[in-house]
Amino acid sequence: MLSLMSEPTETRRERAARRAGEFPPAPEPLPRPVLDSHTHLDITVSEAGVPGGGPSDDPVATAITVAAEVGVDRLVQVGVDVASSRWGADVADRYPAVLATVALHPNEAPRLADLDEALREIESLAARDRVRGIGETGMDFFRTGDEGRAAQETSFRAHIAIAKRHDKALVIHDRDAHADVLRILDDEGAPDTVVLHCFSGDAEFARECVRRGYLLSFAGTVTFGSAAALRAAAALTPLDQILVETDAPYLTPIPHRGRPNASYLIPLTVRFLAATTGSDLDELCAAISATGDRAFGPW
């Protein structure tokens, strides 16, 4: 079994104790298979354990199996630093249902003593065949203040260049930074495929992203009662520009908000999106699946 990421911090241990064994029940399977376009298997297993609550000799295989049973047959494992990116690339090599992305998270970039060296590591990993995306990169003005934004922008621009050099999808983390994300993409010239991970904008921002041909990936947040603006954004997004994700173990959809998330809960978000967009569920599943293959290539 591939070893998990570094030993959890005390905060993570405390979270793990609170979350262990609290995965929600499996939802009704989808009529067609879809993918989870953004998950963190390493963090999920470290913080929350394995869906089903029991021990597992191979927690990654268990998570994949549980997801496949409800129609989620492909997963994109997302890197947030050099270590998790390397781990994800190795997981993708071992498990046919998994592809990987590699990157330095925007909140990670300002903390690095040698950003250039870390970016060289990411570029090296980007050359691997089953690494199909560069992300999550971008801008985050919620957790990083003014003092860290120059490093974030430098890192983001470097990731855009890596994505273009390797012809990989660019997976963007954007929190409270919509205008700056578009500005930097316009300045640098976007890669052919851009995915707005956990899309968090309103209808106006969605229109700008759709106009540019970007893909909008919706997480469990679209089901939250306070997310009317997000639902308006989803309603105007063409089906062939929609992806769905967990961002597991976070952002668990209603009615299980607050409990740990995993790829097997994707059907809750897909069904909610079908109702929000007025789409036929079967048609939406087919569109999400096709868009995933277009964005990340064949599994």
Mean pLDDT: 93
Give the CATH superfamily. Metal-dependent hydrolases
The geometry reads as globular
Which structural category do the helix and sheet elements fall into? alpha/beta
**First-residue to last-residue Cα separation:** 21 Å
**What is the CATH fold-level name?**
TIM Barrel
Count of helices?
Answer: 11
Order of helices and strands: HEHHEHEHEHEHEHEHEHH
Task: Round the Cα radius of gyration to an integer and report it.
Answer: 18 Å
Kindly state the number of beta strands.
8
Supply the CATH architecture. Answer: Alpha-Beta Barrel
Q: Approximately how much beta-strand content do the residues carry?
A: 15-25%
* Helix content estimate: 40-55%
Q: How many structurally independent domains?
A: 1
Spatial strand arrangement across the major sheet: 1-2-3-4-5-6-7-8
The biggest beta sheet is recorded as:
8 strands, parallel
CATH C-level name: Alpha Beta
Task: Give unreliable regions as ranges.
Answer: 5-10
